[in-house]
Amino acid sequence: MLLALAANLGIAVAKIIAAVLTGSASMAAEAAHSVADTFNEVLLWVGLRRSGRPADRRHPLGHGKERYIWTLLVAVAIFGMGALFAFYQGVETLLGHHDGEADPLAGYIVLAISFVLEAVSWRQAVRQVRAAAREEGLPVLAYIRGTDEPTSISVLLEDSAALLGLLLAFCGLGLHQLTGSSAWDGAGSVLIGVLLTAVALVLGRINLNLLVGRQADPRLVRDIRRRLAAAEEVEWVADIVTVTFGTDRVLVCARLDFRDALTAGDVERACVRMDRELREAHPEVDEVFLEPVPRDDPELRARVVGRYGRIAPPPPEAS
Question: Where would I find the Cation efflux protein transmembrane domain in this sequence (predicted)?
């Protein structure tokens, strides 16, 4: 990560120099983009460090969600430091308030070198996301929508935006040189702002869902229900609530109707065993709470129907 930080900082400095030499709005927008990316590397690093702290008395479930907060700040930085500046530069140029463009050669050189470096970083990010999606057994897009690890997604989106932004800046520079109209340069800067806004919105949406408290992977929920329903002591799985509260960390709360012939000791031992079995089957399950309930309780049924719209069907053996 330190290497990526140094590379982004070097690219940002080179773009700033090129923007000053060329007077290009698109180049200035890309400089702001790289400054935001450099700042974001710091935010991601802080998030990784702080979210890895162990649980304590004041934070019994750990600090896993703190990663989502820092990644959400990345989205804010992309919009605040990158997109708004790009919009400002573009509008100023379109309104004719921007100085004329000088020799764009320095801009072309910086854009070409930046594109090569960003392409290498993007390729690595794609490989990482594809490997993670393959490990989860999901298509890449489904993995991006459902992942609880936003850091790698942030890097992929930032690198993708960087490549597209460089192409837009190149087009703005080139069309300005060919036509003599600065409107093309201004339009390139505005489009970079639109691109960065879209990335910020996507990142914000992903992290907002995780901060609010999203259900675990539906495949995990189904397997947990199947395992609990298969327990010989359980007559009915009345309700299951799962919450993702960190990367690969899931809280499971289940309400179970145990067989009436069981003693209190039997229920206690069954709960301990099922807790252990769920953790062994799914390492991401961090906390398990099992509550004995009667299946015909009207208040419980109303709460389950209110949450899911229906009562879960009985397991095959109980049919």
Answer: 2-211
